[in-house]
Amino acid sequence: MSEAAIQAITMPKWGLAMEEGKVSAWMAEEGAAIAGGEEILEIETTKITNVFESPVAGVLRRRVVVEGETVPVGALIGVAAGAEIPDADIEAFITDFQANFVVEASDAAAAPEAETITVAGRQLSHLRMGPEDGPPVVLVHGFGGDLNGWLFNQPVLAEDHSVYALDLPGHGRAEKNVAGLDVAGLAALLADYMEAVGIGAAHLVGHSLGGAVTLKLAIDQPARVSRLTLLSPAGLGEELNVAYVKGFAGAEGRKEIKSLLQQLFADPQLVSRDMINEVQKYKRLDGVTAALNALADAVFPGGRQGLVMRDQLATLAMPVQAIWGRDDAIVPPAHGEGLPDNVTLHWLERTGHMPHMEAAGDVNRLIAG
């Protein structure tokens, strides 16, 4: 085996704004055999701490970056090679890489930005990434979320797809008027949005409330949906953690927001300072509290899910998959049991209500597949 078989493991770029990351914990020891896609370390960004999957296979010969160290995107964090490669060759590879490594200038200015769009008389916000002629994928967030919640998914899926992420009314940069909107109203608005941006049919990916919205559209207008992926979806049972919903709608203080966000993850330590800051900034916008409370009352009347579409799943002709974290504390994982045979169910262990963030690699593969 030659020096060409020495493979660099570098700091990934998760999301358009990421410029550096901190190695918070190594999960693989030096000398251990690692496989492509194997979880080998945890990386902390300003957004969230996430598991990094090795892009290469081999023996982990060096952990170049120690735990607690922060390095820029693209920096060498580890080296994989066959056990027969001499240590001297490994050291020479590291020295050469670091001598020639240049931190790339921030591409934030060139990165696509969210845009405002008027749909059916409402001001929405959306972000499109990927080749214009790629198969379309539309990402729909859950209650209290926004299009930035797809930071680990949209750039990856956009390598081969034309990917649209949307802010629903009351969320993100969209207008805060939610009058007359429930799941059916949001589904109709989603169809209007697809018409406005020129999408005939798309692979719809809906998280939580967004899962109920995309499911409703698939039922009402199946020609709009080529495939359907439901992430910890609402709409499959009456129960949900209404204390979280109402708590998030009314939360203002930092401590309260942090406690609520931690309920979304199997590992509460994933909630970062910046995540809390962004939510607190959003909650301070005029009209947000009233919008979230009104939407909660319309979608979850009496603390229950107002629209349950479980029995209609079997009528869908397009491919349908559901992805659920076993440790979801918001929408009961029990709602994923006993689904009809036309729905492929994927359980993710040690994952909470945010599988697209907490297990992004698995979710991206399932969506792309």
TrEMBL record:
CC cofactor: (R)-lipoate
Species whose genome carries this gene: Pelagibius litoralis
Name of the protein described by the UniProt record: Acetoin dehydrogenase dihydrolipoyllysine-residue acetyltransferase subunit
Superkingdom per UniProt: Bacteria
Pfam families: Abhydrolase_1 (PF00561), Biotin_lipoyl (PF00364)
Entry keyword annotation includes Membrane: no
Residue ranges of domain Lipoyl-binding in the record: 6-81
Keyword terms, alphabetized: Lipoyl
